């Protein structure tokens, strides 16, 4: 997963801080020992050990996370998947935030690991809810997108036929600085204990592995759309899955 391989920004920064702590403690230990003042040595040793343990925990988390997720892709009708998830998503975000589902009939089939896509949808809706502390609305939209040369350039992605699954909120939006970092593992702006900073990086990895792209369209004070573009899957399964008309699906 390239996003993890890059070890950019926050994570490298945290790791560096811990290394600085370890080498600072060791230096102090050395000075004290040269001065024959042994009483502080144990304290510095404990500080170095504590920092080394935290650094080890950090790399463990990273290793566990960077191990490629094993996917079990299946031809999937995303309209049906969204409809099946709608009740759970609504229950998770709570009754105060209405969720609207917008879809199109004849939706293209995609080849994805369904539980991973369900997780992604739930995560996106939780992020949307968290961005709307004063309330607002969530729109989940599916569409067939034919990325011709111009559209592909506009969205900075390869040409082709994609199914798009987007989650839009009317929340705080993100600054360009935040947008630039959201796919970094462990990047979060949420208070301690509330965010892991893994949601969007896992979604990014899963979508990349499925041959797709993630794009974020966000404006401060207006809201955010996170859009997953998944390549159309052709073949026998396309007919088997059949079109689903979202007009017949339950809406909140
Ligand atoms: P987490 O939700 O645990 O913080 P994510 O990787 O899902 O981890 O998100 C990283 C950060 O991206 C969030 O902390 C938040 O700052 C920002 N973010 C994600 N989704 C939204 C959204 N819909 N609106 C505003 N900010 C968002």
TrEMBL record:
Catalytic activity field: ATP + protein L-histidine = ADP + protein N-phospho-L-histidine
Domain of life: Bacteria
UniProt key word Phosphoprotein: yes
Annotated keywords: Phosphoprotein
Enzyme Commission number(s) of this protein: 2.7.13.3
Main enzyme class: transferase
UniProt keyword Chaperone, yes or no: no
Histidine kinase domain location: 10-234
Region forming the signal peptide: none
Protein name, UniProt field: histidine kinase
Originating species: Methylobacterium iners
Parent-record interval covered: 1 to 252 of 375
